[in-house]
């Protein structure tokens, strides 16, 4: 029997995750700024009230929530810029928007998940949070902030049978075209063990799905690096 899953994010990575989970039999609703139709709920992550309403609508459509996969980031974080180019108001706006969005989501999903008996929240981030990357300081900062948020939630929510973990994927999946490939190579300590970053639907979605199973019930507040062996420093 499939699970009832909420996936957040407007990036292609989020839609590929949703497709991979649906292929495994899960019922998925995507929360994103431009989401539409029976499988999407629109939300710009502009306020806690907006996020809470989007989660409530997704839960109503699914009949409850078993798993939440958060892959939404402010799109400004995915544009390569030197540290000196970023203005203070841009840093504050983009970084806080992304972190507040995740915080609001976490606060909004806890009660419906607790009511459903728990299971898993997964934050999906690029693995540059573990290594840093020239031109993507804001992205690395937010990704690391999300890892810390997951740790805090995981410690507090274990009593509710809700696990909270982070999956770090290759930057190739986040940053478009050549820039993503160059970025992945820049943080690599060697040739990726599996020869590449993997496929989101075929390689990452099964790992996300595993985290919601009983076999993963004792894993929380952790980071799983799933980038094909690109970054091996954790």
Automatic annotation (TrEMBL):
<keyword id="KW-0812">Transmembrane</keyword>
<protein>
    <submittedName>
        <fullName>Unannotated protein</fullName>
    </submittedName>
</protein>
<keyword id="KW-1133">Transmembrane helix</keyword>
<dbReference type="InterPro" id="IPR002347">
    <property type="entry name" value="SDR_fam"/>
</dbReference>
<keyword id="KW-0472">Membrane</keyword>
<dbReference type="InterPro" id="IPR036291">
    <property type="entry name" value="NAD(P)-bd_dom_sf"/>
</dbReference>
<dbReference type="GO" id="GO:0016491">
    <property type="term" value="F:oxidoreductase activity"/>
</dbReference>
<dbReference type="Pfam" id="PF13561">
    <property type="entry name" value="adh_short_C2"/>
</dbReference>
<keyword id="KW-0560">Oxidoreductase</keyword>
<comment type="similarity">
    <text>Belongs to the short-chain dehydrogenases/reductases (SDR) family.</text>
</comment>
<feature type="transmembrane region" description="Helical">
    <location>
        <begin position="120"/>
        <end position="143"/>
    </location>
</feature>
């Amino acid at each position: 029997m499939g699970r009832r899953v909420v996936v957040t994010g407007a990036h292609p990575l989020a839609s590929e995750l949703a497709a991979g989970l649906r292929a495994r039999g899960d019922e998925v609703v995507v929360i994103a700024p431009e989401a539409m139709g029976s499988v999407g709920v629109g939300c710009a992550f502009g306020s806690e009230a907006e996020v809470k309403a989007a989660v409530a609508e997704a839960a109503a459509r699914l009949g409850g929530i078993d798993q939440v996969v958060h892959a939404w980031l402010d799109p400004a974080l995915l544009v390569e810029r030197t540290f000196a180019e970023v203005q203070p108001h841009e840093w504050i706006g983009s970084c806080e928007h992304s972190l507040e969005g995740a915080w609001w989501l976490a606060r909004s999903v806890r009660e419906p998940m607790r009511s459903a008996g728990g299971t898993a929240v997964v934050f999906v981030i690029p693995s540059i949070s573990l290594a840093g990357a020239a031109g993507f300081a804001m992205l690395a900062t937010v990704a690391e902030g999300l890892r810390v948020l997951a740790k805090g939630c995981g410690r507090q929510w274990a009593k509710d049978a809700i696990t909270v973990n982070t999956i770090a994927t290759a930057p190739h999946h986040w940053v478009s075209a050549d820039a993503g490939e160059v970025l992945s190579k820049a943080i690599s300590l060697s040739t990726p063990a599996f020869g590449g970053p993997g496929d989101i639907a075929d390689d990452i979605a099964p790992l996300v799905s595993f985290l919601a199973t009983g076999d993963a019930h004792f894993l929380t507040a952790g980071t799983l690096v799933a980038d094909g062996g690109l970054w091996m420093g954790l």
